Amino acid sequence: MLRVFEPRLSWKDKLSVLKNINKNNISGQSPTVIEFEKAYASRFDRKHAIAVSNGSVALDLSMNSLNLKANDEVIVPSFTIISCLAAIVRSGAKPVFCDVDKNSWNMRLEDVESVYTSKTKAVLLVHTYGLAAEASKISQFCQEKNLILIEDAAEAHGQSESGKKCGSFGKLSTFSFYANKHITTGEGGMVLTDSDEDCSKLKKMRDFDFNNQKRFQHENFYWNYRLGGIQASLGLSQINSLEKTIQFKINQGNHYLNLFSDIEEKIQLPLKEHNGTQNHFWVFGIVLNKKYNRADLVKYLIEKGVETRPFFWPLHLQKALNANLDKLDLKTSEMLGRNGLYIPTGKHISKRNQYMIVDEIKKFLN
């Protein structure tokens, strides 16, 4: 079975972890975590980095740190992962869903403007599948309207928009280090900020509100969301190979585009670039025309030994939300959720594998 993704660690990654184990730096309090935070902040042009146990936690802490009220609205694209919605709901705020662009699959300024109201307090900007959202335009809009910008760059390690690094736009910016990310620690996440106050608060929130002067006296019911030293040591090594990883994924994505070029009328392919930003192909997604059934293609490919993943199901249609929002005009998010899927990418997939995968998809479509 050709998996959608399989992690591949280099000997440098393994050596970094082994050196750290030999030093017994394994807890969330180890100096390796601090070293990882400093290196990550520097890599993404931020003053502070707060390492946490996963990317969803990074979103949770960011949203909870804002002290939003029940009627405060947070704009979020409907076409994204459930953790974005969950973080807003758990913060006590009200999610307001915007649609995304049908070509880039990312939120645009016009999508944000279409749902903005006097109750809007924040925007959760999400970069999706390897292309950047309109971060500079949305950031400027937030400044003009006095809104808080939270930037989810979990799928945009090393990506830039308008010459500025993704992860450097938000008041708080979040990353995930899950196994399929361009930088991985297996599980893990990071919050970036330039605010000394936010950094101090977030560090308390991830660590039970411990006070060094009064160790076991707590003023808040916070969490244990720490990242361990072993994971941090892997992250340190991964930072150094980021450009190499990105270039590999670009080459692999461009090869897929060339192989699919003769059937573009039957499927929508990811953009090679958008608004001057080159696609990093965190995943390689395709969107079927309406006359094809995605479930049938998924079944067919499994029988041929090829694993796939469906696109995100729209947030406004999630049963967990327990709300009747199916009448919202979010046609693009719904179309992508019904008809989109991504195919195997990564170092475990050879060019020969790519030829086979594309050939089987062409056979199905024909």
Provide a brief overview of the structure.
With 366 residues, the chain is of the alpha/beta class. 38% of the residues lie in helices and 16% in strands.
Explain what this protein looks like in three dimensions.
- The protein contains 12 helices and 15 strands.
- The chain is an alpha/beta fold and 366 residues long.
- It folds into 2 domains: 11-240, 3-Layer(aba) Sandwich (Aspartate Aminotransferase, domain 2); 242-365, Alpha-Beta Complex (Aspartate Aminotransferase, domain 1), CATH 3.90.1150.
- It has a 7-stranded mixed sheet, with helices on both faces. It has a 4-stranded antiparallel sheet with strand order 10-13-15-14.
- α6 links the parallel β4 (120-126) and β5.
- α1 runs antiparallel to α8 and α2 packs parallel to α8 (229-240).
- The chain starts with 10 loop residues before the first helix and ends with a helix.
- The model has no long low-confidence stretch (mean pLDDT 96).
